[in-house]
Amino acid sequence: MAEAAIRISKEKKSIFMDTVKEILPDKGNLNLCLTCGLCSSGCPATGLENMDPRKFLRMAALGLDDEITMHPWVWLCTMCERCLYACPMKINIPRLVYEARKLWPREKRPKGILGSCDMALRNMSCSAMGTPEEDFRFVVNDLLEEVRANQPGWENLQAPIDKQGAHFFLSQNSREPVTEPEEMVPLWKILHLAGADWTYSCTGWGGENYCMFLADDENWKKIAETTLQAARDLECRYYLNTECGHATYSVWMGQKRYGIKADDIEIVPIVRYYAKWIREGKLKVSSDWNKDRKIIFTTQDPCQQIRKSFGDPLADDLRFVIKSCVGEENFVDVYPNKSNNYCCGGGGGFLQSGYTEQRLKYGKMKFDQVMATRAKYVAVPCHNCHAQIHELSGHFEGEFHVIHLWTLIALSLGVLAENERAYLGPDLQEVNLPN
Amino acid sequence: MSKDKIGSVMVVGGGIGGIQSALDLANAGFLVHLVEKSPAIGGIMSALDKTFPTNDCSMCILSPKLVEVGMHKNIHLLTLSEVESLEGEAGNFKVTVREHPRYIDVTKCIACGKCAEKCPRKVEDEYNQGLSRRKAVHVPYPQAVPLKYAIDKDHCIYFEKGKCRACEKFCPADAIDFDQKEKIYMLEVGSVIVAPGFRCYNPSGTDRYGYGRLPNVVTSMEFERILSASGPFEGHLVRPSDHKKPDKIAWLQCIGSRDIREDSHGYCSGVCCMYAIKEALVAKEHAGGKLDTAIFFMDMRTHGKGFEQTYNRAKDKEGVRFIRSRVHTIEPASDTGDLSVMYVTEDGQMITETFDMVVLSVGLEISDEIKALADKLGIETDSDRFALAGGFAPVATSKPGVYVCGAFAGPKDIPQSVMEASAASAAAAALLSSVRNTLTTEKTYPSEIPVLGEKPRIGVFVCHCGTNIGGIVDVPSVKEYAATLPNVVFAADNLFTCSQDTQEIIRQKIRENHLNRVIVAACTPRTHEPLFRETIQEAGLNPYLFEFANIRDQNSWVHQQEPEAATRKAKDLIRMAAAKASLLEAIEPLKIEVNPNALVIGGGVAGMSAALNLADQGFKTFLIERESQLGGNALHIRQTWNGHNVGAFVGELKKSVESHKNIEVLSGTEIAAIDGFVGNFTSTVQTGDVRREIQHGAVILATGGRASEPDEYLYGKSSRVMKWHELDYLFEKEPDKLEKATGVAFIQCVGSREPDHPYCSKVCCTASVQSAIRLKEKKPYLRVYILYRDMRTFGQREELYRKAREMGVIFIRYSVNEKPMVEKDGEDGLLITVRDHVLGRQIRIPADYLNLATAILPTEGQKQIAQMLKVPINDEGFYLEAHIKLRPVDFSTDGVFVCGLCHYPKPIEEAIAQAQAAAARTAGLLMKKTIDIEPIVSVVDEKKCIGCGLCELSCSFSAIRLKKVVGKGYRAENYSALCKGCGVCAAACPQHAIDMKHFREVQIRAAIHAGCTECADPVREAA
Amino acid sequence: MSDFKPKILAFLCNWCSYAGADLAGVSRIQYPPSIRVVRTMCSGRVDPLFVIQALQDGFDGVFIGGCHIGDCHYQDGNLYTLHRMDMVAHLLDISGIGRDRVHLRWASAAEAQPFADHVTEITDVITKLGPFDKTTHELPLAALARALATRRLRWLVGIDRHISEEENVYLEKTDPEHFKKVLQEAVSAEYHKGLIQELITRGPVTVREMSEKTGLPVHTISLRLNDLERSGVAELDSCEERTPKFVASAA
Questions:
Q1: Same-domain pairing of A271 and A291
Q2: Is the CB of residue B11 less than 8 Å from the CB of residue B23?
Q3: Which segment of A103-112, B152-161, B891-900 scores lowest on mean pLDDT?
Q4: A269, B25, B127, B942: which sits with the fewest CB atoms below 10 Å from its CB?
Q5: Which band of pLDDT confidence, cut at 50, 70 and 90, is reported for residue B1020?
Q6: Which top CATH class is B101-180?
Q7: Domain range spanning residue A260?
Q8: Domain(s) of CATH 1.10.10.10: residues in chain C
Q9: Which ipTM did the prediction report?
Q10: How many contacts (CB atoms, under 8 Å) link A and B?
Q11: Which of C34, C41, C52 is the best residue to mutate to test the B interface, defined by the most B CB atoms within 10 Å of its own CB?
Q12: CATH topology of domain B458-585
């Protein structure tokens, strides 16, 4: 136990925390810490790399900059803000972590995140997979043709690109067009049934932003600007985010943070519209299919969409949508939930950062929380949550399935085709198939 | 100020603060209008189970006061009433009061409860925090004053639907009156005291505690009711969801406090740490010791008198777990109702524990309603909504003539509220001293029923005291047994014998059964004998025809595991009481004259404040100060916690005191001797070589305190190590030293909270934080470290702690087991090594200066004065007041009062409030021309006396002296006014010629004999 | 014998020990249910005769509780108690009952735990002694009561403090050791006289019989009897053969 004592230097030098304080409103309250431990007690990253939020802040406060610099924990904290949500002193530790990520030379930052950021900067698509516009246009049109041809009743299905003056500008996570294009179709069908006037854009369609996770302000801003500009160029009224938490947040927050001009366009999450359309009767979802099956569903509240941006009202919409599709009695909520829900560990770039073992440890809390509901399905409107929880289910042998809301809504509308059921379990492969 | 002053005061709020103010004023010659919003007085204290730190039963200590208010001739009680407006000026106000209809005629209601029994509408019982249901017609609680039912209009079926009136049909007293209308009163008063209290923080606004969603998460106030014998579960410790006995309970501190989020409060609520400890201890007691209790906290704030000792006992002896961690979220552990609490230890280890229940230690806040009252009265409030009260006039509001006390002027506990209540009454009395006794009437009693020569007819009243007695002792069998005793003609048992309705029952039974002796078997005569004496006096019996059997404090509470033995003991004690009671005799009252002058010992802020208030009230006051000038410790203090300039204040105060026509200051003067008794003291004081005698009716002890001299941390060995104000002085005198300094450190609890001085010195955390802020203001880049054990910036002082952190002061918590190490760092500084509490690693801090917050001790010579006056001091050398909760400035010895540091370390504004409280209590005594003194005195049988003089020799009070009797030599004679009633002479007299009234030899012998006539108990026979 | 639960009479002064006992209750400090309390304003009210009566009435022991020396609410009442109980202890020893039946303890109003500890400790001591059999000790108890009622002992114990702590009328301080001797002599003399008086009150009795019943040497009996005859308390009743029998004088 002969750890060397920390000798506080006599000279006043500009320390990391002071510089962070300078850039934050109210200085992020970083000095106010009561060292009460509340943040750490609510943080799934507590204990990883022998670090926790309180300790991290304390080290910064005592000026242990050398130890903070290049500390891997900053990549294990997803900046989910659950600490900030409850901190009695409203201390913005996630922002401190964000700034600490910047202490890493850009090239030393996790390759997965770095690569995805750089990839998105290669062309104007903003796709983290670097998918060029022509590829995207091809995939969309090709798939649309196929659905029109093969799925009866969908001969008039639309997937417009660059439609000037459309009401909604829809962003699209690259994963679907690149690796599982048929996953895009249920959403098209939903939008069609709801009578939504929407469009993709061939520039700035990519619904992701890894530069945000990389703590690369310049390029976070650049991507947010590009995608928002694309929407404004098409004179859309609403920038509608796909079911992707961090994409939603990066645009919503990026606009505020960098003062990107967007007063002619509103940035909105898609779940709000699912709920709206169901309430308005435009989406006639029915839970009859689950009346006798009594398959239990639960959900996850993506930190980026709920706690960090749109709050409990959106969490309520999320539940309304799922309950409408599966039946009130077949929805069992996780606890805690809504704005106070746990981060799954998929966000913040964790999925891409290479710290797999730590990420699974982090996610154990989420796994246990889901298991406590006895749900067979987790419906979640976020790609990172989807991927992480899916992996948790497999890794810890939870035997539950993770689906997007579009899958569930389309299922409940009776429009989910056979080939659109990749994430459904065997129990639902045959259910409510379109005639 | 108005010339036409009015000799009455309005007190707004009937909680403990308002009650105390009302009683003090009513006893000091003023008519009091006590306005209470709810149907009964008692406030939050009435709903508490026990009170810290002594765990006194809250109702037991409050009830006598409730009864006193209810019976007081000069207190006009207005319940269901609210103040509408206030006009006029100090000395002459007009107050409009709106009285809401009770729909019950209070002159007819006999509180039989028939109405509630028949009422078909059940509603949530707010008195039980919604844990149980009551009827729409109800009394808030069984000991309520006035004990009159009230119809809750908002829930009454008749008012909703136009029919029902079931209560009316069944009321045997014809007391229901649905036609009652609201009444508006215009009352003229000279002053107003505002004591509306506080509201408990409602934690349902946040999802993190699960309050309202998880049934076994309860607030501390709900837990009080759960523990209470009169609560929803009759005192059985069970949890709400399934009424299961909990095995594990957690308390979460700072709920709604020390949290700057919008739905919370930044201030510390000041009382929660102690009440959580109390609740844990009481819960353990209920559960028979097997209960696991854990308190999750940040800083344990046990800064009050006796608090730290209670904390230590809870921790070290009773096994209450104290976990220093704030919890993010309470989660359900499973479907069983159990709760999961996740917390981190200081090294960042995550621990999950399952509890049966979680208690949220909710803080105090000011409701919209109270804020609206403040607006109506035109008094200002601060950003936390607490009433703005002047730093040096702690009970004065922004409006002259309107005073405040209790939690409305900042979070505080009961003793502090009681102190302020007395202080507020002192302020009002000073304002209105010229019209004292102009509106009051005297209390009269019915003429006494002669009992001499009558056969004893004893009535016995056995108290359940909720479950305090009834939970251990088989009260019904004790009652039945009592009825079989010789001369006992009536026996009854009561849930709370001290409640006002029981007083009426006792009086009624005296009349019905022609009782001429009364025994109450309950708590202790030391607190409750006066109440029952008064009760029987009102029924026409001489008050000394009363006897007490102590079956609670000395029986049920100390034999909790032996119910049968406790029941036997109770029977024995009642039998002994009955034997004595049979021989009790009526005793004539003794009156003595009161010298209206006061003597205040100690010329610090407390002593000066007390003297000034008494002088303002018109009493000649002698102020004795040992030093050559007045001022005491305050001469060294820069500012109060909220920034008021102490120097200027002390200067002003000195001037007022020295120039006051009613004050005679004797500085450079010591007390040589104090003789006498309440109303008639003679003190010998010595100034230089000159001795002088002073006659006075009362004494206030304000002898102050001093800082301890440390022998650690290089104090005295390095000029860079200082204590208290020394560092401030240094930088003021030599600013270049601050200029050159790069780091300064403070160490807290130097000598406090350690075996030699186990108490917390209370003011040091705030003092160091303030000092640190001043340094940071002067030099923002100075590194300032405060090494502490628990940061005790209680109440709104928390803002200072927040501010200091915001300015960059680094706070490091050390453990008493691993104190910081201080060494010289070459010639030009110090090096302090301390383990950081978060990182668990040693930190070495270079500092130019170190300031130590050393313990506050009682002043030298305090013990001698205590001996002169025969008043007790506690283990730490501070004066021990009569009752830590409800008599915070009194002693058991009449005519002696206490205030300031000699009572316990405290900040200046508390010392002033306490001084004014002491002045109020003193004035209540000095205003009387005569007072009744205990007529329990010695009597000499001249026929037996042989004039040996041993009695005269033995009496320390010269209350028995030899006189010449012609033809017989000498005979002993009594001087009853001087007699203290000790009985030393009676036990000494070689001739058995002396006896003590009320403790007569035959009475004592009868009790002894009764104690054993049946002492062959079954266990012993078997053996 | 382990089931034996003694019954102890406790005299507690109102200001300290009774308050301490109340505080023990308030603090829920547990102690054995052995004591039966008689409250007096001061421990100085406790006449030694009360103590003897308690034993005569069948209590197994007596506990007198007062304020600490120096803290008496009545200045020095407890000092009288101290001297009186010293004398009682001495008498109990010479009577064969033993001083362990009677205990004097100090407990302040703030001393809840010490108070409970006193009760526990005294209860333990008396439990070990076993039940007090008042019938076997009937004679010594009666004699003790007589001795403690005498003017001589009451005066001596009352004057003790004054002549040993202060000066007497001749401006002399009495040597406490010397006084102690005088007192002890008086105590045994008065106790012996008490025994004899008790016996002669019950009917004519010979010196030898008295010696057998009291265990005192014949010589001592003769000596004390002489005293009693002189003060007119005892007289010759009759002579059986050549042995004289004595009785109490008719008052």
A1: no
A2: no
A3: B891-900
A4: B942
A5: very low
A6: alpha beta
A7: 122-276
A8: 150-248
A9: 0.74
A10: 129
A11: C41
A12: Rossmann fold (3.40.50)
**B chain contacts of residue A61, beta-carbon cutoff 8 Å:** 810
Question: Tell me, which fold does domain B937-996 have in CATH?
Answer: Alpha-Beta Plaits (3.30.70)
pLDDT in tens, A350-406: 999 999 999 999 999 999 999 999 999 999 999 999 999 999 999 999 999 999 999
> CA nearest C134 in B: which residue?
B1012
How confident is the model at residue B1, as a pLDDT?
Answer: 56
Same domain for A86 and A134, yes or no, is no
Based on the fold, state whether residues A391 and A297 are members of the same structural domain: yes
pTM: 0.82
Residue type for A53, please? Answer: P
Asked whether the beta carbons of residue B987 and residue C24 sit closer than 8 angstroms, the reply is no
Least CB-CB distance to A89: which of B260, B328, B350? Answer: B260
Number of domains in chain A: 3
Q: Is the pLDDT at B64 greater than 80, yes or no?
A: no
Which of C26, C118, C133, C146 is the best residue to mutate to test the B interface, defined by the most B CB atoms within 10 Å of its own CB? C26
Say whether C45 and B983 touch across the interface (CB within 8 A): yes
Q: Which of B559, B1004, B1023 sits opposite C30 (nearest CB)?
A: B559
Strand-pair partners of B845: B832
Q: What is the CA radius of gyration of chain C?
A: 20
**Residue type for C183, please?**
L
Whether residues C57 and B1009 touch (CB distance < 8 A) is answered with yes
Q: pLDDT-derived band of residue B1016, with 50, 70 and 90 as boundaries?
A: very low
Q: Walk across the sheet containing A266-269 and list its strands.
A: A198-199, A168-170, A238-241, A266-269
The number of beta carbons lying within 10 Å of the beta carbon of residue A127 is: 27
Q: Where are the beta strands (DSSP E) in B356-415?
A: 357-362, 364-365, 402-404
Q: Where do the DSSP E strands lie in B201-297?
A: 217-219, 248-255, 292-297
Interchain contact A338–B (C-beta under 8 A) = yes
Sheet (strand B8-12) strand order:
B75-78, B31-35, B8-12, B191-194, B402-404
Q: Are both A243 and A305 inside the same structural domain?
A: no
DSSP string, A254-278: HHHHTT---TTSEEEEHHHHHHHHH
Give CA separation, C49 vs B133, B237, B901, C55, in Å: 59, 49, 46, 10
- Locate B65 and state its tokens: 């006061």
Judging contact as 3 or more Cβ pairs under 8 Å, the answer for A and C is: no
Question: Domain B203-362 maps to which CATH number in 3.40.50.620, 2.60.40.10, 2.40.10.350, 3.50.50.60?
Answer: 3.50.50.60
CA distances for C196 relative to B990, C90, C153, C186, C235, angstroms: 21, 19, 17, 15, 12
DSSP state of B873: B
- The CATH architecture of the domain made up of C8-129 is 3-Layer(aba) Sandwich (3.40)
Pairing of strands B680-687, B402-404: unpaired
Quick check: B870 pLDDT over 80? no
Rg of chain B over all Cα atoms, to the nearest angstrom: 30
Task: List, as ranges, residues 16-45 from B with C-beta within 8 Å of C.
Answer: none
Q: Which residues of chain B form CATH 3.30.70.20?
A: 937-996
Residue identified by tokens 């289910």 is A393
Say if B835 is an interface residue toward chain A (CB within 8 Å).
no
The predicted structure's pLDDT at residue B631: 95
Percent of chain B past pLDDT 90, that is, above it, reads 82
pLDDT tens for residues B584-594? 999 998 888 99
CATH 1.10.10.10 fits domain C150-248: yes
Indicate the fold that domain B1-100+182-198+366-443 takes in CATH.
FAD/NAD(P)-binding domain (3.50.50)
Q: Which of B966-970, B1008-1012, C92-96 has the lowest mean pLDDT?
A: B966-970
With pLDDT > 70 as the criterion, what percentage of chain B qualifies?
Answer: 98
